[in-house]
Model the fold of this input.
Amino acid sequence: MMRVAVLGSTGSIGVSTLDVLARHPDRFEVAALAASSSDGRLLEQCLRHRPRVAVMQSPDAAARLSGALRSAGVGTEVRCGGAALEQCAAGADVDAVMAAIVGAAGLPSTLAAARAGKRVLLANKESLVVAGPLLLESARSSGAGLIPIDSEHNAIFQCLPPGLEPGRPVSGVRRILLTASGGPFLRTPVHGLRDVTPDEACAHPRWRMGRKISVDSATLMNKGLELIEACLLFGMEPDRVEVVVHPQSIVHSLVEYVDGSILAQLGNPDMRTPIAHALGWPERIASGVQSLDLTAMGRLEFEPPDVGRFPALRLAREVAEAGGTAPAVLNAANEVAVAAFLAGRLDFPGIPRLIERVLERHRNGPATDLGAVLEADRWAREHSDSMLARAAVANT
Ligand code: NAD
Ligand code: MG
Done:
């Protein structure tokens, strides 16, 4: 029996994970659930999956959840706060951790799971972007398994030979082709991007996801973060990772070998496939995802990305080249900019503009310890906030 902690259980990835786990009660036990503040949804999940522990970030939400569980006669222990989350991720009674918290907020618990040698199912790409070398080193020294959940990276993982060590290059690989749907504004002219609303940005044509990653997909920053993620996970230089727009989202990514062979992983766009792959690995288990009908698909198209309209991809590539604390700064500025866009305080083109201005002011340094990375994250948030407050980037 594999005991699984699902961190970020009320989100899009969390819900899909619980769906897959519930299909295999003979293999998996839901050991712990964690979420930010939605106690009503966590209560429903606790009633259904009966975890031993539930962790909430908000103390008020934790108190409400605790009371409701007591009334229902359910013995789940409710805990609260960041330290409880890290203890939960590293706990002796957990074998695998689904890291599905959104943003850099997921870093401490992801790192705790990697340090404790768990099987880490990595959906939280931001933690890798922010502290990649540290996370990989922690996994290597503890022997933790690191299996990517991001559909592209999971596809690449599936196309690479077995025995992969996180962060170490695989011999014989020429390049990686990272596919991108192009997001909801693939055909929107540049002048039209000024007026797009948060709801339009979150209406992704292929995937149903949380709002932050949906905006990232619309700006193509998601692909930028994924470019950095791919370089780190597979030990590749940025110029050997190419982004290809593929609007159908059926080919999830490809690996080209030196002999000219290209291996791809295909499937319906449903995150339960990579989740089931990572949970069952090295075995294959059912995910509930429908068979792909290729003849109904008809066409699979590929085109280059337009970095003129989507400068976030260019910024991320520059940051991937630079390394050091620059990725942490890119990520933090992006989190602030996306939150401001969702709150109506920044227009859509303002997102990459803010990030670029913050990066211009950043003095890059080595990301050798957690302190340096967290300081870069703090600095970038502070600078992004003050630029927003001065309206230096808003609607210019
Ligand atoms: P979401 O917004 O739907 O869910 C986020 C979850 O994290 C929620 O359960 C929320 O309560 C929890 N959370 C947020 N802040 C927290 C905190 N400080 N402490 C504890 N819990 C907190 O997001 P999502 O779409 O499920 O994405 C989650 C992660 O997976 C992101 O890093 C995203 O980039 C990645 N990812 C998502 C998809 C997808 O299809 N949704 C695909 C690939 C990668
Ligand atoms: Mg992805």
Observations:
- The pocket of magnesium ion (ligand 2) is lined by residues 150-152, 226 (CB under 6 Å).
